[in-house]
Predict the structure.
Amino acid sequence: MTMTVPAQRRAPLPSPERRGRTEIADRVVSKIACVAAAEVPEVRDVQPRGLPWTPSAGEVHGDQAVVRLNVSVAYPSPLPAVAARLREHVIRRVAAQTGLHVTRLDITMTDVGGDLP
Amino acid sequence: MTAAAPTGPGGPPNSGGPATSRGPTGPGSPTSPGGAAVSGGAASVGGGAGSGAATEERLIADRALGCRGVARLSGGPFGTVATYLPGERLTGVSADERAVEIAIVATLERPLPQTADEVRGAVADLAGDRPVHVRIDDIIVEGS
């Protein structure tokens, strides 16, 4: 059964606030991820871990981001639990601040030491 | 689209008068000769009308700087977002007849997409129908 519908209007131009792209640089994501990781209590120190020629922890591809971090963790703390909390916190922070979706977050625990806070 | 004030390209040079009719909080009004009063709507960039375009880019820069969450303008990747004006270089804004590009250094007081949208809204009447691409080139993190 066929139905006739009136001719559709063309989509209007988006509102001025939406007309155009918002680009976010890699180092912005890198900085936000490092700050967010340092907010986890067991984390003593964070370094961005980029490729040798770009020491930046983040790479933005469209609306997605890849983040790599080296963290040093207080001893003794349950590493898997800390990693899970770190992962959740960093992903949530980056999404809230930049609107980007972190599709991949590599965490390397490079050191343990220091006291629990 | 409202017609801009009919300032023909290549009007009488040194006709005096401040170039900005409603100067934003910018540092001093630019002293470019042949002031083209940019009224709402896209300023038609006539051939070789350097002063009209220069005024427009400077206005865009001032409006962007006035938005909450914008710390300063930035040159963008490799300093590519810039406009050459007579005797100086305006970093952070480049506009042609197809699009307007703005590169900023933002603060983290609110989510970056909101800041970008506010910048777009602030320069919307200057951009007219052109898309405004906002690039967040860097951020300022408190305590670092």
Summary: The helical segments of chain B are 50-65, 112-122, 124-127.
